[in-house]
Protein 1
Amino acid sequence: MASPDLSPANSGPHSNTVLRTESLSVFYGDSQALSDITIAIPQNQITALIGPSGCGKSTLLRCFNRMNDLIAGLRIEGQIWFHEHDLMDSAVDVVAVRRRIGMVFQKPNPFPKSIYNNIAWGAKINGFLGDMDELVERCLRRAALWDEVKDKLDKSGEQLSGGQQQRLCIARTLAVEPEVILMDEPCSALDPISTAAVEDLMEDLKADYTIVIVTHNMQQARRVSDMTACLMLDANVSQGRRVGVVAEFSPTDKLFTNPTDPRTEAYITGRIG
């Protein structure tokens, strides 16, 4: 069976929405991690996922490019849409999904290769036939790293500083031409100067990409995001344990200045967390 075309729809009720979930629940074996998540990620904006530890932020993020498929015993109920395409359709090419929806992890993880080949490797295996030198330079420029590394492209990416490594990983993601970039705590291991550089980069990139970021840093969410979803732990009476739910999803300014859910207000004011 041919894999469905994942191209964006030009019209329709969700034409400005890139990713959305409908009644999404996630289970690890018998343990439920997320319950009834319905959320819509707008195009060319930065959406932040915040909430206390263990509420399922990273689990939700990894659902968007089916990284959770790699976890044994994981089960998903509900729907995940990329534009108007059902990502849980058995005919979907998961490799194509992960190419269109790239991921940057919490800890910088450059390949044990040269700076140049960190960028070129993914492009090569995805069949890029253009000018590789131009692609490498363009991606490093987009990641605000070119001026710092242009004279040492043959050096190992592992020799860069932590902040430079994270921007290299972002450049590597850009090289396969994604539409969406998922970021899981991308600044948690970085110093304040490097964090500011990555935040500035995100603001620049959203003109061309849709970004979803998980962060424990509420000030970071407030600085960089356009929309914020606050996830909380809610009692699951049937299981006798707590599961992640979306307490509130709204424009960032509104969520932080006038939250509608008392759980959101308690979290952002530090009364719970």
Protein 2
Amino acid sequence: MKKLFAIVMTILCMFGFEARAEINADKAEQFIKNVTQQGIEELINSNVSESERRARFTKLFNQDLNLDFIGKFVLGRYWRTATPQQRNDFIDVYRKLNIQTWSERFNEFKGKHFEFLGTEKSKSADQIFVNTQVPMQEGAPASVKWRVKDTDGKLQIVDIIIENVSLAQTARSEYTSYIQKSPNGINGLIADLKAKLK
């Protein structure tokens, strides 16, 4: 009887934990609205120098993207075998490369606004997808889906999916392939990413 009671209590605790851990859809959507409206849209439509734009994107990315989480995912199994120095070097260059890429890529949305299309659940209780689109001058609107993660009450972006292409998945595939082929492994990848920054 005691054993049965213990099993029941364990199951109830598990369900209770999952319920508490589930991310709030409204908060996640509002978070992305703040990122797009007060961050991206305001930034790309402002008349500031390129250096100032890059500085603001740096602040935006460091604050609203969980690049440590993304970096671990992108390196996959190689994260476990990487040294602390390699991990730090990779996250550093990966952050800089993303800031450079997206400060240029989001310029395509200059003068446009994100439209919100609701949310959809993720397989992980602490993550959710926020669906948006950006009307373009020609053709169909550009689909932009944001994967949001709740870490101890702090919401951050862990992936951006544009036209059904996941940036994290794409990077993981490319980097894994590079490491496998490079004679210098992870160090070779880090050197290649640093070269792209230049």
